[in-house]
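hey so u asked for the seq, here:
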Amino acid sequence: MTQDEKWYMQYERMMEFMETNHRRPSKHRVEEHDMLNWFKYTKKQMAKGECTPERKEKFERLLQVADKYRRKNQYQYKTELGTGNLFQTSDDE
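ran it, structure tokens below
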């Protein structure tokens, strides 16, 4: 299995999880740590500009879905990934 195949498999797994459970993976549930770690790592790669345009486009869609399931008082992800700052609080809007 190539790295691209693994990345897309994790992407699909994360999207399916959020659509099924109507929430993002929790850091308090061990069985969800793999998805959460992949999500955080990929977010860092995007901020550095180290991803292909195809991955960037797909991940932006994932961020939109993740924002939909954001809990109160949590950070909201910016969908503009080239800015270097992927976070903004509700107060920044």
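The chain is about 55% helix and 5% strand. Strands lie at 76-77, 87-88.
lmk if thats what u needed
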